[in-house]
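Team,

Forwarding the record for the chain on the shared tracking sheet. I've put the sequence and predicted structure together so nobody has to dig through attachments.
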Amino acid sequence: MASVATLTNSELDELARKVDEALAAVRTLSPEAQRPALDLKNAIEAFHKLGLTKIIQRLKEDPRGKELLFELVDDPAVYALFAMHGLVREDLSVRAARVLDTVRPYMQSHGGDVELVSVSAETIVVKLSGSCNGCSMSAVTLRNTVEEAIHEHLPQIRNVQVAPNEPDHAHADADSAKAGFVPLGSIAGTPKLDHGWTLGPPAADVQEAVPFRWDADSTSILIVRFHGRLQAFRNECAHLGMPLDGGSIDPESGVLVCPWHGFRFDCASGECLTVPEAQLEALPLRVEQGRVIVRTAA
């Protein structure tokens, strides 16, 4: 059998398949026959989880150990093992987006839609469009559907806020419809900058799947475009704070790879795929008159 360090994805899938097949075989037995096998499975998993937890705790106590832990979690086999025991978890924004995905087909079947704007420890901000955006009974029903799904699957979220919709314009900028935050239509004259918002580069300068660095005063910002959608993050890797603009983006998966230690991030959410508890700091972004505008201060 290949060592963990040399396991390929196909080999890992094969090992997982064998585990699933063995468990499925046990499930076909009578309840009396299942019980000893399942008790053994649960006891072994509890034993392994206790040992793994102590290993992780010890590694986190030492700077070099923490770096080794990050490298280990990047291995699919190690990640799968940690995930099986609940020792790594997805970022809250990723879980929130998944919840919205479950209600989106229902929303769209009634002429509406929902988009995740931001999420914090206790508050989620969503943007509603179509039939959801109004005062009719159907609009209220659709909004309630979103809130009920969020409270059911994310009980730690106490507040669900709806971001105001901007008025449509006949000649809206194409990038505005795909900006990662509060798209705005084109307006005459110079874009108005509210407090904390900074005028950035032309949206056309940000190429598809190519990290773009833009320095605003003392803040270095990373702007990425994936499938036409623009997102902005503070240009600091969640690992050691090193700049990410020298990294690469997989044009198929939208995964940004840090050029320093290979940490992997989701371009859409900033979620660290290497260590899910880490996260890039996302910055609100909009496009006006073909220019990127980023909020760099509160």
